[in-house]
Design brief:
Blueprint (H helix, E strand, L loop, with lengths): L1 H15 L7 H19 L8 H11 L6 H13 L3 H22 L9 E2 L2 E2 L1 H4 L2 H21 L7 H15 L4 H11 L6 H25 L6 H28 L2 H4 L5 H5 L4 H5 L1 H18 L8 H10 L5
Helix pairs in contact: 1-15, 2-5, 3-7, 4-5, 4-10, 4-16, 5-7, 5-10, 8-10, 9-10, 10-11, 11-15
């Protein structure tokens, strides 16, 4: 373990060496502030009936969090010349789906977690039935936003593309499918390739969709730039999940707001469990490099994406 921790420190130093655009920390703060307001505005009012369900939805969404997926949407918008207002609703839809997945993942039938972001999980704060319904309602709300929100492009093909991208990333070919594989694999050994494939579905698909959905709001974007963004999103999504696995091994529960060591206790076939922490950290480096290489066609326009990638993958501090 001491060698693994030393490697984690080395990784942090390398990733922080990536130059960030001037004022990037302020940009992250501004994006978070924007998202809190945007999410609040699109959630049902707390006092509207059914009040308990709406309270659970708001509790699950407006409870902090890094807002990783919205930040990827906004940074991608910067790279392709869109205003944040043009993609804000897509960012909200992604965050609603992400929040629903966390509510359901925390249930006793899934991961049976008591804490999320330092607070009781939804089923602990309310009850299991309300948590199930809150997740269901958040998923429905995400697609309602993509269909109806007036700030998104009015073009029907663009709306359908956004809906299709989110549906694919969250269904059996994405997040839900990856979670099913994860649950079925508990207590078993998986080859590393299968672990990475599972991560690519469970976490990576929605990360990649965050980049793709921003790009879909610019229907005239040349195909080679669309593919470059997808080629950025795929390795970043996998690296993000491997880093989460590493946090469960090396992280501080007080900082993370949730228990550590849970993956090992459940016998989950995580990347560090199969490959070891040092090899997992090296894999994060390789994926980070591949993601940065994919952004070459954008030049300086993608500096926010580059800085965001470095920030996302330096989370062991």
């Amino acid at each position: 373990m001491p060698n693994a921790i030393a490697s984690a420190a080395d990784l942090r130093r390398e990733e922080r060496a990536v130059p960030a655009p001037a004022g990037f920390a302020a940009q992250l703060s501004a994006w978070r502030s924007r998202m809190e307001q945007a999410l609040d505005a699109r959630l049902p009012a707390a006092d509207a009936a059914p009040a308990r369900l709406h309270a659970a939805m708001r509790y699950s969404v407006l409870n902090g969090g890094k807002r990783v997926r919205p930040m990827l949407v906004f940074a991608t918008a910067h790279a392709i010349g869109l205003e944040e207002a043009q993609v804000e609703a897509a960012a909200c839809a992604l965050e609603f789906v992400h929040a629903y997945s966390l509510v359901h993942d925390d249930l006793p039938a899934m991961d049976d977690d008591d804490l999320r972001r330092g607070r009781p999980t939804c089923h602990r704060a309310f009850d299991e039935a309300t948590a199930v319904l809150a997740g269901d309602a958040l998923q429905s709300l995400a697609f309602q936003v993509l269909a109806d929100d007036p700030t998104l492009p009015a073009s029907a093909p663009v709306r359908l593309r956004l809906i299709a991208l989110l549906a694919q990333a969250s269904g059996t070919a994405g997040m839900a499918g990856g979670q099913a594989v994860d649950l079925a694999a508990q207590g078993r050994q998986l080859p590393l390739a299968e672990v990475e494939a599972m991560h690519g579905l469970k976490t990576g698909a929605l990360i990649r969709a965050s980049v793709q959905m921003a790009a879909a709001c610019a229907p005239d974007l040349p195909p080679h730039l669309w593919h470059a963004l997808s080629d950025f999103g795929t390795p970043i999504g996998l690296a993000f999940q491997i880093q989460d696995d590493l946090l469960d091994v090396l992280g501080d529960a007080g900082v993370l707001g949730k228990a550590t060591g849970a993956d090992r206790a459940r016998g989950k076939p995580t990347h560090p469990a199969v490959a070891g922490p040092a090899a997992s950290q090296q894999r994060v480096r390789e994926l980070h490099t591949a993601a940065l290489e994919a952004l070459a066609p954008f030049g300086a326009r993608a500096d926010a994406l580059r800085a965001l990638a470095a920030w996302l993958l330096a989370r062991l501090s």
